[in-house]
Write a structure and sequence with these properties.
By secondary structure, the chain is an all-alpha fold. The protein is 68% helix and 2% strand. The protein contains 7 helices and 2 strands, in the order ββααααααα. It has a two-stranded antiparallel sheet with strand order 1-2. A hairpin with a 5-residue loop joins β1 and β2.
Length: 247
């Protein structure tokens, strides 16, 4: 049975409009299209010889281009198309309740990492090669070879801009869309599964799925998109720093 969503209001008491599942799916489709076009343009430039990319120089170009493409797609095909306000997407004025993030973020990251570790140990015992799940061979390690300013740019994209647009899409749009169709538990599970699946990294699915569950729970607990954004940012920052430290 589909859940009947309650009327939501912003801090000023104005009614806000939750995203529908159709609107979220439409936005995701265009995010994929825009990213594919951007990636194709980079490949075409590299193959044409206009720019002689190395892996290290390709990473910042790819990160910047893909991030701009994804954010543009969301703006045009989710926000502008549907005339959404920030409040419609879950952005509310921060409250003192966000202080809970001081313990919630460390606990969540520890739980996600522990579950991922247990799964990798289990897969290794079954003879599955899990070496690619480590940080040593992560392409992001090439960032360490870049000049200092580019390292900062890449870090900001990964730890700030990526969490921002991904949370708008998955916890701002899809979670609302699933909640309009299903009960909260099902909506949270589906949004987390989608979030993990689109990253296309099977060996880290458990980590991403658990993180997706936590991000959705934070959205509901705080009734604010800033909470999952802060968790997502902290997670991406720690992962990036871990990869760079392993170089």
């Amino acid at each position: 049975m589909a859940a009947s969503p309650s009327i939501d209001r912003d801090p000023a008491g104005r009614q806000v409009t939750p995203t529908t599942l159709g609107q979220a799916a439409w936005a995701l489709m265009f995010v994929v299209v825009y990213i594919a076009v951007a990636a194709g343009a980079i490949v075409a430039v590299g193959l044409s010889g206009i720019v002689d990319f190395t892996l290290a120089s390709l990473l910042p170009v790819f990160l910047v281009t893909v991030t701009v493409a994804a954010m543009l797609a969301l703006y045009l095909h989710l926000v502008r198309r549907n005339r959404f306000t920030p409040a419609d997407l879950g952005f509310r004025r921060p409250t003192a309740r966000l202080v809970h993030l001081l313990w919630q973020i460390p606990v969540i990251i520890i739980v996600c990492g522990s579950l991922q570790g247990l799964v990798l140990v289990a897969l290794t015992s079954l003879g599955v090669d899990t070496a690619s799940a480590g940080t040593a061979d992560d392409p992001l390690a090439e960032i360490a070879a870049l000049p200092g300013p580019w390292i900062v740019v890449c870090f900001l994209i990964i730890a700030v801009l990526t969490p921002l647009w991904e949370e708008v899409l998955f916890r701002g749009a899809f979670l609302d869309g699933f909640t309009r169709r299903f009960r909260p538990g099902v909506a949270i599970t589906l949004s987390a599964a989608l979030f993990a699946a689109v990253h296309l990294v099977p060996l880290t699915f458990v980590y991403l799925f658990t993180l997706g569950i936590a991000l959705a729970l934070l959205r509901r607990f705080h009734r604010n998109l800033w909470a999952p954004i802060l968790l997502h940012a902290a997670n991406n920052a720690l992962v990036t720093l871990a990869v760079l430290a392993a170089v």
